Every structure is written in C-alpha cells, then in structure tokens.
Apolipoprotein acyltransferase (Pontibaca salina), 55 residues
Amino acid sequence: MIVFGAALVGAIVGGMTARNRGGNKLDIAQYAASFGIAFALLGLIATVVIHRLAI
C-alpha cells in the first residue's frame, strides 16, 4: 500500500509542479508520470526496509 500511496502523491506533486511552471497538458502528464514513478520507487524501497526490519 505504501507504493500505491507514494505513486499517487508523486503524480499529484508532479502535476502541480508542472502547472506552477506554466506547462501545457503534455508537460503536466510527463511530470506526473515521472514523479509518480520516482515516488513509487522510493515507496518500494521503504516497504522493503520496513519489511526487513519487522522480521
């Protein structure tokens, strides 16, 4: 669940970043996708670390 939540938060942050910088729809989509992927990767690493520490 951490991965999905992080991907969603990343997509929102990326979309807002592109909109604040004056990007068009494709810029917003690209930022949302790239931030979503990056945040999901960080969420995956956090999930693995948490899982390894809990066992």
Remarks:
- The first helix runs from residue 2 to 20.
- The mean pLDDT is 96.
- The chain has one domain: 2-54.
- The CA atoms of residues 14 and 32 lie 4 Å apart.
